[in-house]
Fold:
Amino acid sequence: MAISEQTIPASCTVLVIGGGPAGSSAATFLAQSDIDVVLLEKAEFPRNQVGESLIPNIWKFTDLLGVSEKIQQANFVSKSGGIVAWNDQIRQVQFSKFGFTRPGLHVERDIFDEVLLKHAISCGAAVFDQVTVKSVDFTDPLKLKVIHLDKRGATNAEGVIRCQYVVDASGHSTFLAGQLGTRQTISSQLKFLSLWSYFKNSLYLGVDRSSHTMAELRKTPPVTFVMSYADGWIWHIALRDKTSVGLVVHTDKTKGMSKQQREAFFQQTCATAPYLRELLAPAEFIEDSLQFRPDYSYYTTQLCSENYYCIGDAAAFVDPIFSHGVQNAFYNANICAIAIKESLKNHRHRARYSALCESRMQQFYGFSRALALGDYGFNGVNKDLVKPLMKAIAPLELELLYLVSELTNRSDNFKQLAKEAGVWQDIDQLSSIPGNEAITLKL
Structure:
């Protein structure tokens, strides 16, 4: 779907690595400011990707990108919130009770990401898929040399692009962090990996707390269903014609397993987990759909420099319990583009703008890691950066974050953050937040 017939240019102002939400959004923001931007994506689009649950926060960024209407036209499944079954307690989160007037979404990421990438092209970005970046030469800091391998033709052709800035949005491969040695693995006891797959004809949980067949998907909106179990936690996300089910488990649980053994472990877990087994009772496992991602959580010690920016999953990734991934990608793309645009106006302050961008991104990622991992002050979390962000978050949104952390037994860390930031004088008042009451399910 990319501009595959064209020749990759020899130079540009900004080179973006990766065509996921972070990369395509950064390219869009820059192209909208008439900046010469080239995006190289190693896969052929559309391509499969996990991360189908999106929270309503994304709309403020899609509005800025000018892509909201295209996303609405794609007719993704709307969701009103989530239901969490955690340690024998079942509770429900409804976005409307926290000031959101637009829904969350359940999206097929191959379609969603392609919408974003095509939008970048329509805004003037030069996009090429099936082109792999091999290395970035920083010898001349004002004229970087990006070596790439073009796999679009019958032969793999090596080429070079000169640019002023590189934006790494390469996802979990963390291209630049790997080259520069800045990637750090999470040192928490909560080290996770993920297994996920897809099912046909699964039941789903609706906003009415009852199970429904997929034929009712548009009539009764689904929720994202999340539950704990002995080895970690599970997600269940109803898409248009299939259901995404994933396990997030401790890294030692599947250590040494073959592909066949992992699939057997996955199917056995799905068949025996409470609630999930009822939802999947009429379902059919889609053969060869199981995927596996080890080394799940990590962060990068330096995200930005005067001539490069690491954004999205290329910057950091943590337990996705709060569905922050795509929101983080949009946020990073936005502030990264602002930093580059300001740097182009005044080259003498390149380092200053990159440092400001670094601070904002580390603040945002630090907040996510602090809540998700429950070990505030470790794993690259800078308390002095995180506390001001907590003060700046709107009260209703902060209540929603507290509720989700409470539902997943991670609120002790949230309370410590709130106490040090001076956000609430009486933290106990949060017990009355809508959604903190127990509910029952009709399966």
About this structure: The first helix runs from residue 21 to 31. The chain has twelve helices and 25 strands. The CA atoms of residues 168 and 175 lie 7 Å apart. The radius of gyration is 22 Å.
